[in-house]
Amino acid sequence: MAVHEWGEHSRLAWPSQGPDVSTKLNLSAPITLTWEIIRNEDWTELDLWWHGAFAGSSTLGYELEANMSMPRAGEQYVYEWNPASVREGLAKSTGKLSADRDYYFTAKLHPSNSTAGETVYSEKYEVEDKALVSSSASAAGSLWGLVLSSLAVSVALL
């Protein structure tokens, strides 16, 4: 669990129980985010985002929810994210998603009717989705196939 502090103002444990960073995020199923507000004096709302990367280095970001009411200090907050609309948008793009641990959530904590505040970053995750994620293993396999074919032709010509 990552705990983030800003002086006497706010403290957030993110994520407190989920999702587990040792498992890949499955973009074909709902994902449950769980965190706990340890101290919450100034920030009353948060904006929740999901960020990641395409294979080849360009980045992406989707706002999941804006101006969510913050739970009181000591309360656990659970947010269920259904990535179906994000997945649909990604399926229409020409790029594949990175197979690396490039995906994370952010929560921008702020007072009501304001955009000024602090941003908290989750740990980084990998994602799984055969249709959307670049397969570095298949690319490496194709390259080795080409190398071995070239070697076989060279040996045959000797």
UniProtKB/TrEMBL annotation:
Name of the protein in its database record: Uncharacterized protein
In its UniProt entry, the species of origin is given as Colletotrichum sublineola (Sorghum anthracnose fungus)
The organism's lineage? Eukaryota, Fungi, Dikarya, Ascomycota, Pezizomycotina
